[in-house]
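Quick one, probably user error.
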C-alpha cells in the first residue's frame, strides 16, 4: 500500500510525495483561516495539537523557520506522530552521505561524499551540501545555497537564498545567513551575517 503523507504547515509538497511513491492526503496547520483551494483529495486535518496519527500515515514537515520546526516536532512526537524523509528523484546523494529523519531534499539538491544532513533539515532547490559537511538538526537551506567542503552548520541555522559558506568554516547554532551572503569566517552562535563578504548585522 502506498504511503499516505500529511503535510505539516500547509506547504505544497504533493509533487515530491507522488515522486516518492506515496500521496499527500491532508495537511495540518495552526493558522488556516480558509481551508478551501487545496487540490482535491487533500483535506485540512486541523490544528497540530489535535492530530491523531492514522495507520500508514507519515508526516512531511514543510515549515522553514528552524525554531518553529523544533517546537512543532516536539509537539507532534508527543502525540505519537511518525515523520518521513523525502528525497526528490532529481536530488543527488552520495553513497557515503547520511540523511536523518524528517529531511526533505528538493529537486536538484546535492549531498556530497561523507556529508551528514541532520534530522528535520530542509535542502531546497539547487542547493549543495559539500563533501564532509555537517548540517545540524532543524536547519534550513534556501534555494541555490552552497555549503562547501568541511563546513559545520550547527542546529537551527537559517541560510538565505544564494548564500555560500567557504570551506572548513563553522556556523554556530541559531545563526542566520542572509540571502546572497558569502561567508569567509566562522559565524558565532545566534548572530546574523549578510552581504559580500558577510558581515554582522
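Nope, works fine. Designed sequence:
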Amino acid at each position: 500500500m502506498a504511503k499516505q503523507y500529511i503535510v505539516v504547515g500547509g506547504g505544497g509538497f504533493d509533487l515530491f510525495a507522488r515522486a516518492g511513491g506515496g500521496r499527500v492526503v491532508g495537511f495540518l496547520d495552526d493558522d488556516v483561516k480558509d481551508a478551501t483551494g487545496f487540490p482535491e483529495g487533500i483535506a485540512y486535518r486541523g490544528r497540530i495539537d489535535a492530530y491523531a496519527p492514522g495507520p500508514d500515515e507519515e508526516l512531511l514537515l514543510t515549515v522553514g523557520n528552524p525554531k518553529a520546526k523544533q517546537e512543532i516536532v516536539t509537539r507532534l512526537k508527543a502525540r505519537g506522530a511518525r515523520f518521513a524523509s523525502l528525497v526528490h528523484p532529481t536530488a543527488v546523494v552520495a553513497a557515503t552521505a547520511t540523511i536523518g529523519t524528517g529531511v526533505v531534499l528538493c529537486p536538484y539538491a546535492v549531498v556530497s561524499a561523507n556529508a551528514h544532513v541532520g534530522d528535520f533539515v530542509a535542502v531546497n532547490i539547487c542547493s549543495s551540501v559539500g563533501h564532509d559537511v555537517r548540517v545540524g538538526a532543524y536547519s534550513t537551506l534556501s534555494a541555490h545555497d552552497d555549503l562547501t567542503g568541511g563546513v559545520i552548520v550547527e542546529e537551527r541555522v537559517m541560510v538565505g537564498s544564494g548564500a555560500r559558506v567557504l570551506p572548513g568554516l563553522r556556523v554556530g547554532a541559531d545563526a542566520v545567513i542572509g540571502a546572497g551572503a558569502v561567508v569567509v569566517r566562522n559565524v558565532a552562535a545566534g548572530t546574523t551575517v549578510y552581504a559580500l563578504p558577510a558581515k554582522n548585522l
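The chain has a mean pLDDT of 89.
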